[in-house]
Amino acid sequence: MNFEELVNTIQDWTLKITVVAWALVGLSWVLGWALRGAPVPLSRIKRLGHGIVEDAVIAALWLALGSAVFYLISVMAKNFLPQATIEVKPPVSAR
């Protein structure tokens, strides 16, 4: 596996993990608001929902920062790859 394939593999896995993480953030956000706004008289459930929403917001912040850092690293790694050189030799003349 050469360096370019390694960078592409890491970028692919990072993208897949980031999509799953955003899905979990969205799910916890919806679940938190559902618990917080539930028409139940138990304040513990409402506080639990509030805590889940706060955790989802913090997770979204760190996920956005982390994915931006990984994106910048992958762009820098791709730009600093050694460029392929092709040697062109003049044709051999037969005498």
In DSSP terms (H or I, runs of 4 or more residues), the helix count works out at: 2
List the helices and strands in order. Answer: HH
The largest sheet, given as strand count, sense and whether it forms a barrel, is: none
Taken together, the total number of domains comes to: 1
Counting DSSP E segments of at least 2 residues, the number of strands comes to 0
| Mean of all residue-level pLDDT scores | 84
Query: How far is the N terminus from the C terminus?
Result: 44 Å
Shape: rod-shaped
Secondary-structure class? mainly alpha
How much of the sequence is in beta strands? under 5%
Question: Uncertain regions: pLDDT < 50 for 5+ in a row?
Answer: none
Helix content: over 70%
Radius of gyration: 25 Å
Keywords: Membrane, Transmembrane, Transmembrane helix
Transmembrane segments: 13-35, 56-77
InterPro entries: CedA1_arc (IPR049689)
